Amino acid sequence: MNNEKEGNEDKGDPLDIGSISFNSEAYLSDLFRKKSLHELVQIEEDMVHNVRQLDSKMQQLVYENYNKFLTATSTVKKMQNDFMEMGKKMEILSKRMGNIAALSKDFSAAFSKHRTNVSQLSEANKKVEELQFLLCLPEKLRVSIGRTEEL
């Protein structure tokens, strides 16, 4: 589109098609006043050509990005499902960890009652083993002395 106002820095010009405050009625009124019929036909042909180009570019962009859009949509759905599954698994894990903590506490309480008894029995067992060793020592010494005399 050849527009006389392209170099214009003012984005508020109602006659500038690229302006945010573009006014189509004022633009057409200005064209009808300043342009001949031949120039108006040429401007119309340029606009039709530009619209077709823009439409073609837009279709190309849509086509190029459609697969990306589908892939992104699929990825988002998969992530949502994965997060939902992960949330469920985390709930199950949390419950199981709570059960483990409760069982551990129960075991600890049950074993703490018998811990001193086990400790005393362990010490008594060590003393019995020492006494057994001492009681068997004379016999072992006799056997050892008997072997050395045979040699």
How would you explain this protein's 3D organization?
- The chain is mainly alpha-helical.
- It has one domain (35-150).
- 83% of the residues lie in helices and 0% in strands.
- It contains 2 helices and no strands.
- The chain has helices at 24-34, 37-150.
In terms of topology, how is this protein built?
Layout: H1 24-34, H2 37-150
**Could you spell the SSE succession in H and E letters?**
HH
| Mean residue pLDDT | 88
Separation, N- and C-terminal Cα atoms: 124 Å
Oligomer: single chain
Structural class designation: mainly alpha
Shape: rod-shaped
**Low-confidence parts:** 1-10
| Most strands sheet | none
Query: How many domains is the backbone divided into?
Result: 1
Summarize the amount of helix as a percent range.
over 70%
Q: How many helices in DSSP terms?
A: 2
Strand proportion, as a percent range, falls in under 5%
Kindly provide the radius of gyration, computed on alpha-carbon positions and rounded to a whole number of angstroms. Answer: 48 Å
How many DSSP E strands?
A: 0
Keywords: Golgi apparatus, Lipid transport, Protein transport, Transport
Protein name: Vacuolar protein sorting-associated protein 51 homolog
Function: Acts as component of the GARP complex that is involved in retrograde transport from early and late endosomes to the trans-Golgi network (TGN).
Main location: Golgi
